[in-house]
Amino acid sequence: MGGTKSVDVVISGRVQGVSYRAWTEREARARGLAGHVRNRHDGSVEAVFSGPEAAVDAMLAACREGPPGARVTDVAATGRPEVASAGFRILS
C-alpha cells in the first residue's frame, strides 16, 4: 500500500511559453494532488506535488512528456518532509 508523498520538482527544457503551468495545474488537480507550479528565471518550471504516492509518481511520469509543444529534457524530483496545503495553484 502506498502512503502520502511530497516532492519538489524542477522541469527543464522548452517548458515556458507552451502552457506548461496550465497543463500541470489541470493534470495535478485531475490526480487529486496539492501543491503549486511556477516559472523560474532560468527558463525551467518548478512544482511541488503532494498526495497519494501512486498519484505523485504518475504526475512525475506525465511531466516527462508535458503538453504539446513542450520538449522536456529533465525532471528532477527530491522528497520534501512537509505536505503542501490543500489545492493546486499556479504561482507567479
From TrEMBL:
Indicate the enzyme's highest-level EC class: hydrolase
Identify this protein by name: acylphosphatase
Q: Which InterPro entries match?
A: Acylphosphatase, Acylphosphatase-like_dom, Acylphosphatase-like_dom_sf
Q: Which reactions appear under catalytic activity for this entry?
A: an acyl phosphate + H2O = a carboxylate + phosphate + H(+)
**Keywords for this entry?**
Hydrolase
So where's the catalytic machinery, residue-wise?
21, 39
Q: Give the family per the record.
A: Belongs to the acylphosphatase family.
